[in-house]
Design goal:
With about 150 residues, the chain is mainly α. The protein contains six helices and two strands, in the order H-H-E-E-H-H-H-H.
Length: about 150
C-alpha cells in the first residue's frame, strides 16, 4: 500500500504515532510491550528520517532502530499533549472509581446487579455528577487521605 503525504502531514503523522505508542507502551515493561505498535512506529520513523525529518527522529546505529530526538520528545507541543491527556484521564478515572465505590456501597452489590442498564446508568450518573462538580470546584485540594496515620 502506498500513501502520499505532504511534509506537514508526515510531521503530524510522526506526532500521532509517537503519542499513540507512548500511550500504549509507555506504561509497559519491555517484555510486555505491544510489539506491533513498535513495528509501525519504526516504519513511520524510518520514512520520516528518509524524508528530511531528522530533527524529529534519529537512527541509533548501535541497534538499528529509530528513536524520537530529545528535542522532539521534550518540545512544548508534545509535552502539552501528554500533560493534557494525563490531566484529563486522572480526573476521569478518579471520578469513575469514587462514583462506582459509593454507588455500590449505597445500593449494595446485589441490588446493583439486579438493576437494568438504564436504571443503573441513571443512579450511577448521580454519583458521577456529584464528584465532577466537587472536583471542578475544589480540584486536588478536595482530596485528603483520612487514615494515612494508620500506615
Amino acid at each position: 500500500m502506498q500513501i502520499e503525504l505532504t511534509k506537514e502531514q508526515m510531521i503530524d503523522l510522526v506526532k500521532v504515532v509517537y503519542l499513540g505508542n507512548w500511550m500504549i507502551n509507555g506504561v509497559r515493561l519491555q517484555s510486555e510491550r505491544a510489539k506491533k505498535f513498535d513495528e509501525i512506529e519504526q516504519i513511520i520513523y524510518s520514512r520520516a528520517a528518509a524524508n528530511g525529518l531528522g530533527d524529529m527522529v534519529e537512527l541509533d546505529s548501535s541497534c538499528g532502530e529509530y528513536y524520537p530526538t530529545s528535542g522532539f520528545e521534550e518540545s512544548e507541543e508534545i509535552e502539552g499533549y501528554k500533560e493534557d491527556y494525563d490531566e484529563e484521564t486522572f480526573w476521569e478515572r478518579l471520578v469513575d472509581k469514587m462514583a462506582n465505590r459509593d454507588f455500590i456501597a449505597g445500593f449494595g452489590e446485589e441490588a446493583v446487579r439486579k438493576m437494568g442498564d438504564h436504571e443503573r446508568f441513571e443512579k450511577l450518573y448521580e454519583f458521577i455528577n456529584k464528584y465532577e462538580d466537587y472536583f471542578e470546584t475544589r480540584g486536588i485540594d478536595g482530596l485528603k487521605a483520612v487514615d494515612l496515620e494508620d500506615l
